[in-house]
Amino acid sequence: RYSLWKVVDLEIAVVKDQALLDRVLASGTVLTDRQRFKSIRFNKAEVDVPRMVSGLMSACEVIDLTIGEPKLEQVIREIYRQQESPS
């Protein structure tokens, strides 16, 4: 189940279209949201990765963008959060 998760880390020079950026960020779970750095976790079975990246590139002047697996501590935190919330 967790292998479907991906994380996009994005360093932004300039936001050109805030509304588009907000829509793209809403397609996942924002893990980090600082002025120039965003980290978004998403389910690749539910989100079209090329479309997400295209949206990010259209919304911003991007300095750096990486797509990777979630960090182990993020996965563990999510597991505990799911166990604590009522089903």
Kindly describe this structure.
This protein is of the alpha+beta class. Helix content is 37%, strand content 37%. The chain has 3 helices and 4 strands. The chain has helices spanning 18-25, 49-59, 72-84; strands at 5-15, 29-33, 37-43, 60-68. Strands 2-3-1-4 form a 4-stranded antiparallel sheet. Helix 1 runs antiparallel to helix 2. The protein is elongated and about 40 Å long. The two termini are 17 Å apart. The model has no long low-confidence stretch (mean pLDDT 86).
Keywords:
87 residues; alpha+beta; 4-stranded antiparallel sheet; 3 helices; 4 strands; 37% strand; elongated
Order of helices and strands: EHEEHEH
Tell me the structural class: alpha+beta
Q: What is the number of beta strands?
A: 4
> How would you sum up the global shape?
elongated
Strand order of the largest sheet: 2-3-1-4
Helicity, as a percent range = 25-40%
Query: What's the helix count?
Result: 3
Distance between the termini: 17 Å
What share of the residues does DSSP label as strand, in percent? 35-45%
The whole-number mean of residue pLDDT values reads 86
The rounded Rg comes to 14 Å
Give the gist of this structure.
The protein has helices at 18-25, 49-59, 72-84; strands spanning 5-15, 29-33, 37-43, 60-68. By secondary structure, the chain is an alpha+beta fold.
